[in-house]
Amino acid sequence: MAEFVEATERLAGVRPAVSFFGSARAAEGSPYYALAEQTARLLSDAGFAVISGGGPGIMKAANKGAFHGRSPAVGLNIDLPREKHSSEFQDISLRFKHFFARKVMFVKFATAYVVLPGGFGTLDELSEALTLVQTRKTRKMPIILMHEPFWRGLLAWFRERLVAEGMIDAEDPDLVQVINEPQKVVDAIFAFYEKRGFEPLPAEREILLNL
Predict the structure, then answer these.
(1) Nearest-CA neighbor of 82 among 113, 32, 121?
(2) Which of 23, 45, 98, 115 has the lowest tally of Cβ within 10 angstroms?
(3) DSSP 8-state assignment for residue 69
(4) Residue 177 is part of which domain span?
(5) Number of folded domains in the chain?
(6) Whole-prediction pTM value?
């Protein structure tokens, strides 16, 4: 409960924000690291706070890009074998013991999700975002996958298995967008909110209260 209270109080004014997900194992200087850093910098300069898991790899790249931009870099840190040390590129740093409290904060304050290549943790976070939007337990928002070759097989499996066997609706794969260029990520988020603004609508605010 203390983690929920502290995080909610400290993040209350951090809007609009984009939650970044991706591998803790991506090395600095790798194409994925560079893609995350560049995208986060553009989003930060465009007025979006960037929320990441606070650890190494893609998380560090996202925080670094935002830290050197105009808007806050937020780290939701957790103690894991591969994530013992927090990134230094954090304007707001929170530490969690419990995954479930941390996950709520990724969702509660997000205007969009940007998902880069990653492992089980990244797939878990992507699946949770898709589930919450699909079931209308959170508001609909852009869920953007970056680097299409990495995701190609998974997206094909969504249609060839999940849709074909009736496990999800035919339109459910359209909950995700695949974008390769950092500037196009920024453009896609602005396009989504062009006619409605970034603040949650009254019905969406009610949904978020009951998240």
Answers:
(1) 121
(2) 98
(3) S
(4) 2-209
(5) 1
(6) 0.90
